[in-house]
UniProtKB/TrEMBL annotation:
SMART domains: Aamy (SM00642). It comes from the Bacteria. Keywords: Glycoprotein. Transmembrane segments: none annotated. InterPro entries: GH, GH13_cat_dom, O16G_dom_2. Belongs to the glycosyl hydrolase 13 family. The keyword Glycoprotein applies. GO terms for molecular function: alpha-amylase activity. This is Alpha-glucosidase. Residues 25-407 form the Glycosyl hydrolase family 13 catalytic domain. Pfam families: Alpha-amylase (PF00128).
């Protein structure tokens, strides 16, 4: 059982520490390689904890490191209670948690409850047992349509492209909303729920501080598995199509209540769900007092670099959590989306805008999720076809390039690949040669670097009284701009997305994302004032 005596005094404080925490997402394959195989691992993360403490983050979110055949780079889990040898072993995980706590950094891990790997022992048993068996009841097997059963049970499509059903030799079909190697579990089966509870307790007992729940709006399927309405482009997991029956079914909330009940027995732990829903009330349902502590909010990811769009995203996000009394969460990038330097235009313009949006994000009340490498200003990488590994590339018939471009290994030091990420010449995804100016080493002592901006902003956020208060007050502002104040703290954040300089709001400049123009706020710039 988790004991407060296992943790440092700062970590052991049993409180809702997560309500204003800054989390740092570690894409484990791409963070740091300790054994020279070109793939990041747990000991690699441990070797960089000093950097993360210097950056100023409160907690880590680790992507899956469990035993897996890696069809979807770990999100196809064969054993959720063990470490895949490519990342280390359980002893390495225990070392990482212990050392992170010594650095006063909490550790949260990914949970993948919607599906398992097709090499999970349960699915292999299901294939052997045949139709109608108890083993198959743990998954979603169905007879096909048509006189000979040769058509899928319904018209659902996979998020990764192609049909969401695969036929097995005895004629039945199994459901996989993602890759065929990721069969969906049947959450109406009591053994499925009992196994997740066992997994939760396994990692909580090892000292983890919480979970990020993958596809938290999935798991529960609609009764009868009805056909979906097919549009010009079939909706996927990132879709806001209200006609999509595959996600956000009411039965999912019973699952989250079970998860919360387990976690309430481990004080000081938390769970955040990946929730892709548009309606504020539907979002709020996931973060009720007996469900998830937090819900991932993707509105800033979806908003372009436009003051009106960003303000709308902020207001909707705050309205959604106001219905439940939980804090908002904010993120600009993650392992599934194009990095925001690239989304905002790429090059010097994209970097300038990314700096501005960093100050906007970090000025907001609630919880921050940073994605590894964003503090270095990393752009998306246009990888050659031969290097692509995301299952979307193959499943789409080479029409969708997938997510590899945001997952390229971190450049730490030096002037050429692998930039201190590994001793291997060839890393699992190739790094661009021109990243020498983006390494952590190159940026640490440069006061004008993206890394220095993050460090200074995070230090202010943690120590400055201006960041108190969970409500915002908006100022009048010129077209293409906005300014808001943190009620209770007094910090003012202003953003200019117009094409011309505008007068600054009243106050003393605390931090700006770029050079100022006297008492004017230049285009593509944000500023904090007190």
């Amino acid at each position: 059982m988790r004991r407060s005596s296992d943790l440092t005094p700062e970590i052991a404080e049993e409180s809702a520490w997560w309500r204003d925490a800054v989390f740092y997402q570690v894409y484990v394959r791409s963070f740091a390689d300790s054994n020279g195989d070109g793939v990041g691992d747990l000991d690699g993360i441990r070797s960089r904890l000093g950097y993360l403490e210097l950056l100023g983050v409160d907690a880590l979110w680790l992507t899956p490191f469990y035993r897996s055949p890696m069809a979807d780079h770990g999100y196809d889990v064969a054993d959720p209670r063990d470490v895949d040898p490519i990342f280390g072993d359980l002893a390495a995980f225990d070392r990482l948690v212990a050392d992170a706590h010594e650095h006063n950094i909490r550790v949260t891990v990914d949970l993948v409850p919607n599906h398992s790997s097709d090499l999970h022992e349960w699915f292999q048993e299901a294939l052997q047992a045949g139709p109608g068996s108890m083993e198959r009841a743990r998954y979603i097997f169905r007879e096909g349509r048509g006189f000979d059963g040769s058509q899928p049970p319904n018209n659902w499509t996979s998020v990764f492209g192609g049909p969401a059903w695969t036929r097995v030799p005895d004629g039945q079909w199994y459901l996989h909303l993602f890759a065929p190697e990721q069969p969906d579990l049947n959450w109406e089966h009591p053994e499925v729920r009992a196994d997740l509870e066992r997994t939760l307790r396994f990692w909580l007992d090892r000292g983890v501080d919480g979970f990020r729940i993958d596809v938290a709006h999935g798991m529960a399927k609609p009764e009868g598995l009805p056909d979906m309405e097919i549009r010009v482009q079939a909706p996927g997991v990132l879709s806001d199509d209200v006609h999509d029956p595959r996600f956000d079914n009411d039965g999912v909330h019973e699952i989250h209540r079970m998860i919360r009940k387990v976690m309430d027995g481990y004080p000081g732990t938390m769970a955040v769900g990946e929730i892709w829903v548009k309606d504020d009330e539907r979002f709020a349902a996931y973060v009720r007092p007996d469900e998830l502590h937090l819900g991932f909010n993707f509105r800033l990811v979806e908003a372009g670099f436009d003051a009106d769009a960003v303000r709308t995203a902020i207001e909707h996000s705050l309205a959604a959590v106001a219905l439940s009394g939980t804090p908002a969460t904010w993120t600009l990038s993650n392992h599934d989306v194009v990095r925001h330097v690239t989304r905002y235009g790429g090059g010097a313009l994209g970097e300038q805008r990314a700096r501005a949006m960093t100050l906007v994000e970090l000025a907001l009340p609630g919880v921050i999720y940073l994605y590894n490498g964003e503090e270095l200003g990393l752009p998306n990488v246009e990888l050659p076809d031969w290097a692509l590994q995301d299952p979307t590339w193959e499943r789409s018939g080479h029409t969708e390039r997938g997510r590899d471009g945001c997952r390229v290994p971190i450049p730490w030091e030096g002037t050429s690949p692998p930039f201190g990420f590994s001793t291997a010449v060839n890393t699992w995804l190739p790094q661009p040669n021109e990243w020498d100016h983006l390494t952590a080493e190159a940026q640490l002592e440069d006061p004008g670097s993206m890394l220095s901006l993050y460090r200074e902003a995070l230090e202010h956020r943690k120590s400055n009284a201006g960041f108190a208060g969970e409500e915002l007050e908006w100022y009048g502002a010129p077209a293409g701009c906005f300014a808001f104040r943190r009620k209770g703290g007094g910090l003012i954040c202003a953003l200019n997305t117009s094409g011309a300089s505008v007068p600054l709001p009243p106050g003393q400049v605390l931090l700006s994302s770029g050079p100022m123009d006297g008492d004017q706020l230049p285009p593509d710039t944000a500023v904090w004032l007190v």
